[in-house]
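Figure 3 (text version): structure tokens given as input.
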């Protein structure tokens, strides 16, 4: 076993924690709900961030790195033993399980709780559970997770919806050319996976006479190498995400919203959160996947770091973390000048 750096070396200890987390995930050895990625300074409030669709906390290492070694960061993950359909079938049940683990680790004090993608609704439900039990000093951070069962600002029945989808296409194309392989083989594979996923959804819907959103996962994630249990886990979690109906939330919320939408779907993250809470909406240049890693995620991390620092201040009121406007959105990158990256998709 590699010896951890001394406690005073925050950067070294963060790198050690991240390497350990990545190796454990690769070897299938993740056994705890809480995955420390940065110990940080003792005067900072730890940021607890819930996993996305994969259930893995290790996918949040890039966000922890961008926040820096002084910010304590703990990923909330589904241990490998829990990655099956039975565990992922209910957002509410997962949230209770995670909240109880969090309370054991931090029974009192301020809580900075967030989630990326599907993790955003799990974090919301965790915050609801904790507030119902007397923990009101919570800052809730949502990173680009829409609420699908909440009325959006623009209905699909409106011509404005399709105008917005069309207006988004050039930005989507620029980022897709930057972040994905556009070789003929790759494009054929992407279209084949999407077609097969839609066909499975249609067959399941006809057979069971109900929506089968979980099978959509196969269209944007490569599940071919997943075990049967793991494939069932991500499908069940995506299905649970589409069934989840959030209640109104009274606490402070910060919402980071990606400026670039999917090619054929208007997600309206900020608009849906305004239906249940009074959030601060911060637009961030980039896509759903790119805003939690460099270079697009650097601006998000800077804004989140500032809000976490304000929340940790002894005199900070939970309801007034920082309401200063912070427009981070900028024009889409030029396809010719953009660097080639290959992020792992984790849609909400």
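Below: residues designed for each position.
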């Amino acid at each position: 076993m590699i010896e951890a750096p001394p406690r005073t070396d925050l950067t070294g200890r963060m790198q050690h924690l991240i390497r350990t987390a990545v190796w454990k995930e690769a070897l299938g050895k993740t056994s705890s709900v809480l995955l420390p990625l940065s110990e940080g300074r003792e005067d900072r409030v730890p940021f607890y961030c819930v996993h996305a669709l994969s259930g893995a906390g290790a996918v949040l290492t890039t966000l922890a790195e961008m926040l820096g070694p002084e910010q304590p960061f703990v990923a909330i993950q589904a241990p490998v033993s829990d990655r099956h359909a039975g565990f992922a079938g209910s957002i509410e049940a997962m949230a209770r399980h995670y909240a109880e683990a969090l309370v054991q680790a931090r029974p009192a004090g301020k809580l900075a709780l967030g989630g990326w993608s599907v993790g955003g609704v799990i974090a919301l439900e965790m915050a609801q559970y904790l507030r119902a039990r007397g923990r009101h000093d919570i800052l809730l951070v949502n990173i680009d997770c829409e609420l699908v069962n909440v009325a959006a600002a623009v209905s699909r029945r409106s011509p404005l919806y399709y105008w917005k989808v069309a207006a988004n296409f050039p930005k989507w194309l620029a980022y897709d050319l930057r972040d994905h392989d556009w070789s003929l083989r790759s494009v054929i594979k992407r279209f084949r996976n999407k077609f097969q996923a839609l066909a499975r959804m249609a067959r399941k819907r006809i057979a069971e006479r109900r929506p089968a959103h979980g099978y959509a996962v196969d269209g944007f994630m490569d599940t071919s190498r997943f075990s049967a249990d793991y494939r069932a886990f991500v499908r069940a979690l995506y299905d649970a995400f589409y069934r989840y109906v959030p209640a109104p939330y009274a606490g402070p919320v910060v919402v980071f919203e990606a400026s670039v939408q999917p090619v054929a779907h208007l997600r309206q993250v900020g608009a849906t959160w305004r239906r249940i809470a009074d959030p601060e909406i911060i637009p961030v240049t980039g896509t759903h996947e790119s805003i939690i890693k460099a270079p697009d995620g650097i601006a998000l991390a800077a804004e989140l770091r500032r809000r976490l620092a304000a929340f940790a201040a002894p005199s900070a009121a939970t309801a007034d973390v920082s309401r200063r406007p912070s427009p981070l959105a900028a024009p889409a990158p030029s396809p010719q000048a953009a660097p080639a990256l290959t992020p792992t998709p984790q849609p909400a």
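Confidence is low (pLDDT under 50) at residues 322-327, 329-348.
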